[in-house]
Write a structure and sequence with these properties.
Length: 425
């Protein structure tokens, strides 16, 4: 049974950082996405799709804009309940707010509650897939994969490994990190839409032995992603230098232990040395821009010109990030780029939040309105509030119509979210 989901449709034929942004995209003012068995089977003008699928049922979203569901490439779902905690920078913020909350996820019932709450919030904000850290507790990984499977969502997640510089109740060992990560990988990787991600939190909280153990696990499972943090704050970088006197730079602490590769995803990557950028580019690794986090915990301004050399994803980094919304995250990316003299086009912002993040995750069947891709969609109301509608009413083209929603929109702008073709509200 085929269904036509109709509205305005925006598709990308190209990377808007590689070609002039407006030429990368195609706008269909009276468009449709045809869906069958959870996948996209057609995209284009509604008249053409009606002719192509004569028996199809229709759901009309009027003049709302249909996009691929947002892909959040770096989030900490266990930090859902401590989002917007006041007054600290990275290391103090971790010790004061984050670690005590993460310790609470030792209780599988609490982990399940937070996983459900996170996914409800993500979907309400138009996010249909995500790559998340869990806590050191294997049950926290089970919780997020189970809750995602219930909703049919594509999920990337891994046990966050730490064997030093963390409280007693949040430390594993090199061996238990390897064993528990491997058991979770065997249990979840490739099951339904779940993908296991090898997850050393960051160099300061792993001994060289633990980094090596996880590097070995990655060598044994090279199809898995590996996620960690890189060069987020200057104090953190100085700490890494003290902890790893033999490393050439922060990235080298990972490379020395087998944790640099094409499927590596490095969060933040703000204060990079030229050598680090060169090595990331040589291996084809991805970095993830987390702009609300970078301003909220005072980390710095990501350099968007890296898009010319590296795969770059976009992410909330909830709860270091101050929002669950990829719209708010695009707005922050715009503002951060402005502070560096880089004006991001709405096409670039929307692409980062969808296909850009999907590419960072090596996911080919999400983040795109293409035949064969999963029908994970978000439908945006471009006039969701009085402030936005008085602005979008003047729009001369789709970019002027969507930009006020990027800058001022929130969950009220999300008219509908589809996961594998199924409406989620
Ligand atoms: N670096 C190590 N752990 C974290 C975390 O939980 N959040 C952020 N923003 N940075 C980190
Ligand atoms: Zn993070």
């Amino acid at each position: 049974m085929t269904q036509l989901i109709t509205g305005q449709v925006l598709t990308f034929d190209d990377d808007p950082f590689a070609v002039p942004p407006e030429t990368a995209a195609r706008h269909e003012p009276s468009g449709a996405v045809a869906v069958a068995e959870g996948r996209i089977v057609g995209v284009g003008p509604v008249a053409r799709l009606r002719a192509e699928f004569p028996g199809a049922s229709e759901v009309s979203h009027g003049a709302h804009l249909i996009l691929p569901g947002f892909v959040d490439a770096h989030v900490h779902y266990p930090q859902t309940a401590i989002i917007a905690s006041w007054g600290k920078r990275l290391i103090d913020w971790l010790n004061t707010y984050t670690f005590p909350e993460e310790a609470r996820l030792a209780d599988p019932a609490y982990a399940a509650t937070i996983a459900e709450r996170y996914l409800d919030l993500a979907l309400a904000h138009g996010t249909t897939s995500f790559c998340t850290y869990s806590t050191i507790h294997p049950g926290s990984v089970d919780a997020i994969f189970k809750a995602s499977a219930t909703r049919g969502m594509a999920a990337w997640a891994g046990k966050t490994c730490m064997d030093r510089n963390a409280p007693d109740d949040l430390r594993d060992t090199a061996q238990s990190a390897y064993d528990e990560s491997r058991a979770l990988l065997d249990r979840w990787h490739g099951v339904g839409r779940a993908s296991y991600v090898i997850t050393p939190r960051f160099s300061p909280t792993s001994t060289p032995a633990q980094l090596s153990a996880l590097g070995a696990l990655w060598t044994e499972h090279p199809d898995c992603l590996m996620q960690t943090h890189l060069s987020e704050q200057v104090d953190e970088i100085a700490w890494v230098r003290d902890l790893f006197p033999d490393a050439r730079d922060y990235l080298d602490t990972y490379e020395m232990h087998g944790l640099l590769g094409p499927r590596g995803i490095y969060g933040h990557a703000i204060h990079l040395e030229p050598r680090e950028v060169d090595r990331l580019a040589e291996v084809g690794a991805a970095v993830v821009h987390c702009p609300t986090s970078n301003t909220f915990i005072g980390s710095g301004l990501f350099d968007m010109s890296l898009t010319g050399r590296l795969r770059v994803g976009l992410a909330t980094d909830t709860g270091g990030g101050s929002s669950f919304s990829m719209l708010r995250t695009m707005a922050a990316a715009y503002e951060v780029a402005q502070l560096r003299g880089q004006a991001l086009h709405p096409a670039q912002l929307l692409w980062l939040a969808t296909e850009g993040s999907a590419r960072a995750l090596h996911a080919l069947d999400i983040g795109r309105l293409k035949i064969g891709a999963m029908a994970d969609l978000v439908v945006l109301d471009l006039a969701s509030t009085a402030a936005i509608s008085q602005r979008s009413a003047r729009a001369q083209n789709v970019w002027e119509a969507v930009f006020p929603t990027i800058m001022m929109g929130d969950d009220r702008a999300v008219a509908q979210t589809y996961v594998a073709g199924k409406p989620m509200k």
